[in-house]
Amino acid sequence: MGRLRRSRVHKGIKDISKKYRLKRKTKDLDQIQADLLPENKPKLESFEIDPELPGLGQFYCIECTKHFTDATSKLKHIASKVHKRRLRQLKDTAYTQKEAEYAAGVGSGSSFSAESSSLLAITRKNKQASDSSKMIIE
Amino acid sequence: MRLEKCYFCSSTVYPGHGTMFVRNDSKTFRFCRSKCSKNYKMKRNPRKLKWTKAFRKAAGKEMAIDSTFEFEKRRNVPVRYNRDLMKTTLLAMKRVTEIKARRERAFYNQRMATKKDIEHSQNLVEIEKNIHVIATPATRSKLESERLSIISKSMDVDH
């Protein structure tokens, strides 16, 4: 049973091991947010004709970093749950190494403005929410 | 020697430990262990995982804004060794950690102060929602009448 054993251990779970691989790594959220900036967006909206890509590279969704074969499939994708979920994710400011360091207690306040540290903003927002709930309880 | 912070969980990465991922736009990501690196590859958001420092600070579980965080910083200019400076630095480090620990304890106590009340009100809501599980018909009607009397009392107080 040696042959079967190899595929039935944890390593053999294909969808998970594929998930971990960097071979098919797609763009991170911060890269997509950079793509969506007005100076970068026009470049991605008009792709040159590339026979290697699906739909000759003419139907590209910037938010989901995905090429489609034709206009109808792209429209269908834009109406889908996956695309809407991605839009929701992109609304938040992207997580950065700076934020990780801030969370670890390296520097604070002066070294981070409110815009650069989304964590600070989120903390303040959560605090306000909890304070208001406390008021209601009292 | 530089002690880096893990991109995902914000723990310290000592030299010779963890992995570094260099993205194709030459940005580097340091991970303290395979757990963090795998979670990054799965595109999980550290702010939404309860075991990361980013979550704990964002959710108000830990002290996030304090002056004691100002001392530890990424310094890119090397300092020439000076015995006196080293001595005072070591003393200051000890003192700062002391103060930080005290403030963290105070923060925790303050956070836990309202816990009992919140839990109590949550329990009351849960009992009211699931009363059919615990009560027989007789007790249920009794509880119902009690509840009504409480409501009418509070109404009287209002008027």
UniProtKB/TrEMBL annotation, chain A:
Transmembrane segments: none
Keywords: Cytoplasm, Metal-binding, Nucleus, Ribosome biogenesis, Zinc, Zinc-finger
Family: Belongs to the ZNF593/BUD20 C2H2-type zinc-finger protein family.
Entries under InterPro entries matching the protein: C2H2-ZF_Maturation_Protein, Matrin/U1-like-C_Znf_C2H2, Znf_C2H2_jaz, Znf_C2H2_sf, Znf_C2H2_type
Domain called C2H2-type: residue spans: 61-83
SMART domains in the record: ZnF_U1 (SM00451)
One Gene Ontology biological process: ribosome biogenesis
Localization annotation: Cytoplasm; Nucleus
One GO cellular component term: cytoplasm
Major location (coarse): cytoplasm
Keyword Cytoplasm: yes
Name of the protein described by the UniProt record: C2H2-type domain-containing protein
One Gene Ontology molecular-function label: nucleic acid binding
From TrEMBL, chain B:
Keywords assigned: Nucleus, Ribosome biogenesis
GO cellular component: nucleolus
Key word Protein biosynthesis present: no
Record flagged with keyword Transmembrane: no
Signal peptide location: none
First-listed, main subcellular location of the protein, grouped into a coarse class: nucleus
Highest taxon of source: Eukaryota
GO biological process: ribosomal large subunit biogenesis
InterPro entries in alphabetical order: L24e/L24_sf (IPR038630), Ribosomal_eL24 (IPR056366), Ribosomal_eL24-rel_N (IPR000988), Ribosomal_eL24_CS (IPR023442), TRASH_dom (IPR011017)
Annotated TRASH domain residues: 6-44
GO molecular function, one term: structural constituent of ribosome
Location in the cell: Nucleus
Family classification: Belongs to the eukaryotic ribosomal protein eL24 family.
Protein name as it appears in the record: TRASH domain-containing protein
